[in-house]
Amino acid sequence: MTNALYIILAIVVFGVIVFFHELGHFLAARTCGIAVDEFSIGFGPSLISKKRKNTLYSIRLLPLGGFCRFVGEDDDSDAEGAFNKQSVFKRMIVTFSGPFMNFVLAYIATVVYLMAIGVVFNAPVVYDVMEGTNAQLAGLRSGDVIVSIDGEEISFDYEGHLRISEIISENEPDEPMTFTIQRNDETFDVDIAAQPVEGGVQIGIYLGGYYYRYNLPDALGQSFSAVWNVLTVMLDALRNMFTTGEGIEDTAGPVGAITMMSTQMQQGMDMTLYMIILISMNLGIINLFPVPGLDGGRLLFQVVEAVRRKPIKPEHEGWIHAGGIIALLGLMVLLTYRDIARLITGGVGGRGRSKGGYVYNGRRTLAKCNGCRVKGLLW
Which residues are paired to 191 by β-bridges? Predict the structure, then answer.
């Protein structure tokens, strides 16, 4: 596909993420008996709209957001099912359900990832062999498992992966080591001497790992910890941004997000799922910020109301949220300007494959690393 088609695909995926967010508000409102005036994906002029059961469903021109408008949300309405007439507990459920649905979507995408793509377990497996090295001369191949070195058993796990590099590093150059290799159902020994290189020694292999695809029950369980790990990483990054300013220069608006998504999605289904997980969780977290105009700002007002046991005047709350929305739109314009400037200078969206991948834990990754199956250390 051309870049333009990937950009369109990224916009569609972003629209799906926004749809899930608004769907959370919508379903919670229906469950709580709150009337929904409009359910919209996008902003600006309406392109397609249809009214059904007193709710207008619409798709608007700018597909970089959406909204779910309730009857009596920002005014004192006496209509049946008006938002302002519901208990504060119901209103909090409806407000929180949008960000919550983003976490649900991230969880579903992680389940699909674990089943369709799988995780890579770092292990004492040869990923690749360098041309003209002692490892190639000894006949090592991609996929060979190193069982032992000089009689020392190598465990088939992350520790074994690391131990190989330690043994080779500690060995004297040109001193042969006996490697016990398992290749399919065959086990054999080969003698390989380390070669001196700048900064140390090597035999000329890349250590890698192997993919493991989960079945549905295991994926359902493992996805909780995977999503939790990503959440903690994101929260740490946000904390650093606000406390030390680290990462502020990397922030992007809708244009930057779409550009990054389209670039990463060209790498395949694994990165498409990866971006759904990251963007969806990011949207859920940001919307919980206690900022007027965001779900977190509305939740803050509702918590204050629950503590005071008295609602804040709707018109006052409406003015505050309107001011917050204006400020957010101003920020979006600023970020969009910067995104476009970066596009012109080639500084947004990244080049090449994503590095590092989606960290599942210290020993496994959910994404390809540097464009390969855990292309690890060269030894």
Answer: 178
- pLDDT per residue as tens digits for the range 315-341: 777 778 778 778 877 877 777 777 777
Query: Which two three-digit tokens encode residue 311?
Result: 């609602």
The better pLDDT of the pair 273, 43 is held by 273
d(CA 130, CA 204): 5
CA distance 182 to 244: 50
Contact 167/178 with Cβ under 8 angstroms?
A: no
Confidence (pLDDT) at 221? 92
| Helix, strand, coil percentages, rounded to 5, for the chain | 50, 25, 25
Angle between helix 269-287 and helix 254-265 axes, rounded to 10 deg: 160
Which residue would you say has higher pLDDT here, 134 or 208? 134
Contact 160, 200 (CB under 8 A): no
Q: Position 252: which residue type?
A: A
How far apart are alpha carbons 268 and 203 in whole angstroms?
33
Cβ-count burial of 344 within 10 angstroms (0-12 exposed, 13-18 middle, 19+ buried)? Answer: exposed
What rounded mean pLDDT belongs to the chain? 82
* Measured distance CA(122)–CA(366) in Å, rounded: 12
Among candidates 166, 116, 377, which has minimal Cα distance to 271? Answer: 116
pLDDT band at residue 199 under the 50/70/90 scheme: confident
